[in-house]
Known about the structure:
126 residues; 5 strands; five-stranded antiparallel sheet; alpha+beta; elongated
Amino acid sequence: MIGKPFEPLYKEEITHSQLVRYAGASGDFNPIHTVVPVAEEVGLGGVIAHGMMIMGFVGQAIHTWFHADDLLKFSVRFRGMTRPGEKIIVKGSVVAEKEDRWLCEAEAVNEGGEVKVSAQFEVRKG
């Protein structure tokens, strides 16, 4: 099992309306995520996706690979901005094992391979 990749999770193209809906659902109304002129004014060249939304994609993938009750630890590092129009792929694998758990890594990347979020997580062996 060590090193064998999990089935990737493919997400559809990020849309501006998705960012607006996520802002409403999360309560994160920072205008860099929803208001193009504001995002341009601060030098971003347009709106960017909420990092927590991309992190949520990683969590969704983990839930397809393992039962939620078996998740023991989950941590992420935000690595790059995601923009509308990008498609995200979440990949992962087991990198080590201990007596009672698997140590795993995952990353959310765009179609060009740019890493948006990297993650480490541990799951109880089932």
